[in-house]
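# step 3/5: fold
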Amino acid sequence: MPLNLAQRNAWSLARTLMTIVVVFRIDGGKFGVAEAQEFDGDPSLIVREYDPFAR
């Protein structure tokens, strides 16, 4: 999915689940979204973390 869509989905998911969610890079210039605790890929692929508790 495109980056802007991934970012919107990540923030929405983080607020709904009240857990940290990450946006990560996938081959081909696409991006994915997952709960941080479920992401088991290379940490260098993480573009951004969304923490619903951060101020």
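# step 4/5: annotate
The longest strand covers residues 21-26.
# step 5/5: archive (pending)
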